[in-house]
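User: I'm putting together notes for a lab meeting next week and I want to include a structural view of one of the chains we've been expressing. I don't have a solved structure, so I'd like a prediction I can at least talk through. The sequence is below, exactly as it appears in our construct file.
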Amino acid sequence: MAAEPIKGPASYFPSIEKRYGRPIGDWQDLVLQKLPARHMDLVAMLKADHGMGHGHANAIVAHVLATRKAES
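Assistant: Thanks for the context. Below is the predicted structure for the 72-residue chain, given as structure tokens.
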């Protein structure tokens, strides 16, 4: 039986790692270090400071914030 396809923000992770050459954990840690901050401020930081595209930056931030919320 085939595994369920990855959905949501995590579906972007393989292409993020390939395009920007860093493991997804590095990007997640970078976002975590900037907390507390607003979602769009974190997206803007990834775009401005690291040249990330909007969709990739948004996927990382959304995943980090959703994971933190689920852990609370």
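A couple of points you could mention at the meeting. The mean pLDDT is 94. The chain is about 65% helix and 0% strand.

User: Perfect, that's what I needed.
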